[in-house]
Amino acid sequence: MGSEVLCKVSFQGQTSEGKAYLESEKVTFRGTFRFDIPVKAVSNVEVSRGVLKVSTAEGLASFSLGPELAEKWANKLKNPRGLLDKLGVKAGQKLCVLGVKDEDFLAQLERKVGEVHTGRAPKECDLLFVAVDGPEDLDRLGTLQRSIKRDGGIWVIRPKGKASKLADGEVIAAAKAQGLSVVKVAKFSETHTAEKLVIPLSQR
Questions:
Q1: Consecutive H or E run containing 175
Q2: What is the pTM for the complete model shown?
Q3: For the sheet containing 181-187, what is the strand order?
Q4: List of residues 6+ apart from 125 with CB closer than 8 A
């Protein structure tokens, strides 16, 4: 969930009151005109007298947010969260990866925590990442639950969009049926999404 605020925005010769949203991947504005600025397209960020100025190849977008919020948004744009931050990966954690074939992701994990378990899930994992391609893969969630700490998590990594073989809500339903709750959704890559499952507090 990103940040949302009502403010005045100027962009490409237009000025309007409306809603501005700061999300992990983009800055969005909805007023009498609309635009989306991908975070990766931002070339410079400045704050002047409470106005956040975001430079892109398409022009300069100015957001009248006030001093405190403008500085907060500027910091987030200058220091966007990486994938491991979004997934809650921290140094010293015990991690397991099952079926996820993203070599760059595996390399990032190894640099962060050192050893990463693959092939078979050990006991007491802080986080377990499992690839899910279709409904049949969801049947193992209950078994995988035994491999995480009571306050640990299982990240289901699955294709998104037209490539997905899962219907909307299917992961949530399967998790609930096996004693788990979906508490977070994150963008894993351009082709895959990630959903975090945990043991409900009442069962820990």
A1: helix 170-177
A2: 0.72
A3: 117-118, 95-98, 125-131, 148-159, 192-198, 181-187
A4: 94, 95, 96, 117, 147, 148, 149, 152
Backbone angles phi, psi at 125, to 5 degrees: -80, 140
Query: What secondary structure, in 3-state letters, does 120-137 show?
Result: CCCCCEEEEEEECCCHHH
Residue 54 tokens read as 């975001």
Amino acid of residue 96:
C
* Token pair 């043991």: residue: 199
Determine the Cα–Cα distance for residues 47 and 44; give it in Å rounded to an integer. 10
Sequence ranges of the domains in the chain:
3-80, 84-203
Indicate the fold that domain 84-203 takes in CATH.
Answer: Rossmann fold (3.40.50)
DSSP alpha helix (H) spans, 57-99: 67-78, 83-86
Q: Name beta bridge partners: 125.
A: 148
How far is Cα 182 from Cα 171, in angstroms, rounded to an integer? 8
Which fold is adopted by the domain 3-80? PH-domain like (2.30.29)
Distance (Å, rounded) from C-alpha 36 to C-alpha 19?
Answer: 12
C-beta atoms surrounding 129 within 10 Å:
26
pLDDT by 10-residue block (mean), the chain, 204 residues? 85 97 91 94 96 96 97 92 92 96 94 93 96 94 94 96 88 95 93 96 88
